[in-house]
Amino acid sequence: MAWLEVMAYPLGTALALMGAGAVIGLFGRPRFAMLLAVVGFAWLWAWSTPIFSDFVRASLEQRYGELPVDAVPRADVIVVLGGAMQHDADQPYPGVSSAADRYWHAARLFNAGRADRIIVSGGRTPGRGPGLTEAVAAALFMGDLGVPAGALWLETEALTTRENAVNVAFMLSERPVRSFLLVTSALHMRRAEAAFRAVGLDPIPVATDFEVRPSSSYRLKRWLPSAAALAASSRAFHEYVGYWYYRARGWI
Fold first, then answer.
1. Does residue 149 sit in the same domain as residue 197?
2. pLDDT tier, 93 (very low <50, low <70, confident <90, very high otherwise)
3. Of 49, 87, 111, 230, which has the fewest Cβ atoms less than 10 A away?
4. How many domains, the chain?
């Protein structure tokens, strides 16, 4: 539901708290209304500061090391999860987001001989109109990175991490694959790895697209809110909400 998607981000929860305060204030409870408004404001401020944004993202990313290619074990297949491509029928070429590091790294691993095949998993969100699925668009992009079409297996239906895991598990059950590297953004890896393990697979996590670098800076600017920091921390908030939602559904 749309309201659940809104609540999966700090801005949505902050607006909900402040909105609830406004409504309660109309019913003659000004102190409680003020408390909700202050909590909502403080919540939004915290998630909008660079220092907190770095902290919450690092809490997910630091579970995984940023390994050089020669430190990654060889496997039968590389599985790379979608979430980086955008394409509409009137565009000659797909566009990419910052998460395109997933495809760069999968191609890097392939070209270094860490596996002989790549599975690209990702469908097309309903309602977006005609255009390429994530997997097909990614295949074009990876071709430009030197990965031959014959080395790619495409899974073109998955729209969620859960569906990535279920659909890839089915694909692997039909092929003699004993081991695979799971490539996705470091921020997303905790939930992705758990989802794949929940369907009986044993992925080797290879995280990429790290966003946070070690910093000892405590300048005043890092305590002041910014739209960029809010956008970055919202991705981490979404991952935490998604992880616990998956747990509640029994998907991890």
1. yes
2. confident
3. 111
4. 2
